[in-house]
Amino acid sequence: MAKVPLTSIGHARDALIDSKTFDKNRTALHERHELLEERRDAVHQGWGEKYRERVHEKGKLTARERIDFLKDPGTELREVGTFVNYGRKFGKLSSPAAGVVTAFTRIEGRWTMVIANDNTVASGSWWPLTSEKIQRAQEMALRLHLAVVYLVDCSGLFLPEQSRSFPGRTGAGHIFKKNSDLAAAGVPQIAGVFGDCIAGGGYMPLISDRVYMTEQAYMVIAGAALIKGAKSQNLSSLLIGGPEVHVHQSGCADVRVPDDETALVQIRAEVGRLASPCTEFYRHGADPGEPFYAARELEGLFPADHRMTYEAEEVLARLVDRSLFWEILENRGREMMVGIGRVQGLYMGFVINRQGIIPDPEHHDGKKAAGILYKEGIAKVAAFSRACNDDGIPIIWLQDISGFDIGVEAEKLGLLGYGSSLIYTNSSNQTPMFTILLRKASGAGYYAMAGHPYEPVLQISTPLTRQSVMEGRTLAIAAFNTKLDDDFCIATDDPEERAEIEQGMRATEERIEGDMDPYKSAAQMDTDEIVGLDELRDWVELFAETSYQANGYRRTKNPRIWSLHDLAALTEPRG
Predict the structure, then answer these.
(1) CB count, 10 Å around CB of 366?
(2) What is the reported pLDDT for 222?
(3) Residue scoring higher pLDDT (95 or 125)
(4) From CA 85, how far away is CA 411, in angstroms rounded?
(5) Shortest CA distance to 574 belongs to which of 221, 387, 331?
(6) Which of 344, 430, 414 is nearest to 373 (CA)?
(7) What span, in angstroms and rounded, lies between the C-alpha atoms of 198 and 201?
(8) Phi, psi of 358 (to 5 degrees)
């Protein structure tokens, strides 16, 4: 019987790094973590206390209060899309979290995706990027076959910005296409309707398997004000499409309940009727276990300066159960580290960039810089990715990459072709893939390592993440290349022209550095969430549990017949 040869990796913190450096790193990162918490809290406030009071005066709960009531006691949410629209203004108004909360939430022991209109932000209206954020959450649920719970309290499009929300391939109407895709795939959908559900807000719950309506809720194609203007009829929205109409007459809703709390109790019961999680079966008798080395130590092991290095093994040792790992193809393409570890007792594949200068007898001076993709490393990662897909093992990509090797030798070795092979593999994989941008996520390396454009189930960033084609200084040199000599010095003796070029290069560098801010990426949905390094183990646990919770929708081989064993056997030293 083929066994998974997990062995200990990692070292105690004091054997890796001196206390002074560790504390310096942790202090620098602590400031960024504090900023993250401060900005999260600001988003969670919605439009503030005044608007929360308005909701309470109506006898209703806010969206975040509904989710807190719904989730299992003592469990944490894993919110995604927190910073969508962060920093953007629409006239004088903002739309915290794009006016909708989307979160992985544990209900009755089952991970679900909860999508809740924030009724403290313009009565739960849809802003630019709201529909895209909802669809992104629906896509995550579809890929993992997680039940979706909609907490609907939506007054339709925020009309002053309708031109950026209504049309287009991912406009508001595409939400209902996603509702249909989920239904066609057999993914359960449950909706609670709590208030204004006008136009698109009215359509959103209808394809759900169960629809609950409170006494204050109504679902209408057009509200009373619009009907009064169009047909000169004086009606209330409750009379047009309240629970009396839709539960007892039209059949567009299933159950009428008196208030928010009752609806949420009923929704919890519905989730409890779904199939039990399959995670225990897929543990193959293993017990979950914490990493032997504390995951919180990552705060002090990562240098805040992206030019400084750390050990990839030490990162994995603080993410996988009991710090046990099976490294595969360890003597080939050493700029990359690939292998298998358990998380919550469940097998997960890992791909991570090594950092620093590493030995390489085939390189021209016997060594090479890691954090870059070379021929052998690309082939190694592609083979590992294919094998994980064949075996049904979910993959976690830990990126800290500057890009592909470049130059005459790289082109002669066919890096374009090897890179295309890796891109094809990651584009066509069916096994769940998750991407964590640790620090640098640059150039085509970001793409090749399952970056957002290659549709991982979920991509998260840290406060250290820098997403770009290239660093600011490098890009400024490329942009002003025609003004520079072979040593990249400004090629003019004219003082005015020199000053103009210097100013232009400086402005370009500063703009690119600003563009690399992870909050800007999150605001425009170029990454799904920003999380602290001290939270990475929690997120990796989510990746594992959600990947294995459902059964029957993807192939998951037992470990005895993994093709990874064949790959390892054929590359072991002989004799």
Answers:
(1) 9
(2) 56
(3) 95
(4) 41
(5) 331
(6) 414
(7) 5
(8) -125, 150
For residues 409 and 255, the model is more confident at 255
* d(C-alpha 267, C-alpha 248), whole Å: 20
DSSP secondary structure letter of residue 157: B
pLDDT category of residue 156 using cuts at 50, 70 and 90? confident
**Cβ burial 137-170 (10 Å sphere, 16+ → b, else e):** bbbbbbbbbbbbbbbbbbbbbbeebeeebbeeeb
Alpha carbons within 13 angstroms on the beta-carbon side of residue 100 total 34
Distance of CA 154 to the CA centre of its chain: 25
Beta partners for residue 467, in sequence order = 441
From residue 140, alpha-carbon distances to 365, 367, 408, 457, 543 in Å are: 46, 41, 41, 6, 11
Q: Are 456 and 525 in contact (CB under 8 A)?
A: no
Alpha carbon distance, N-terminus to C-terminus of the chain: 21
Query: Left (φ > 0), alpha (ψ -120 to 50) or beta: where does 111 sit?
Result: beta
Count of positions (residues) in the chain: 575
- What distance in Å separates the CA atoms of residue 446 and residue 429, rounded to the nearest whole number? 17
Each residue's pLDDT tens digit, 313-371:
999 999 999 999 999 999 888 999 999 999 999 999 999 999 988 888 777 777 888 88
Segments of 272-408 assigned E as strands? 324-328, 336-343, 346-353, 357-359, 367-369, 372-373, 395-401, 403-404
For residue 228, pLDDT over 80 is answered with no
Residue showing tokens 């595969």: 328
DSSP annotation of 77 reads P
Q: Evaluate the CA torsion angle 100, 459, 302, 288 in order and state its sign.
A: positive
Alpha-carbon distance of 453 to 570, in angstroms, equals 33
At 117 the three-state DSSP class reads strand
Pick from 189-198, 398-407, 477-486: least confident? 477-486
For residue 192 the two structure tokens come to 């609670």
- Flag whether pLDDT at 69 surpasses 80: yes
Round to whole Å and give the CA distance between 197 and 213: 11
Local confidence band at 56 (pLDDT 50, 70, 90 cut-offs): very high
* 431 confidence band (pLDDT: 50, 70, 90): very high
Q: Which of 96, 102, 153 is closest to 127 using CA atoms?
A: 96
Distance CA 330, CA 48 (A): 53
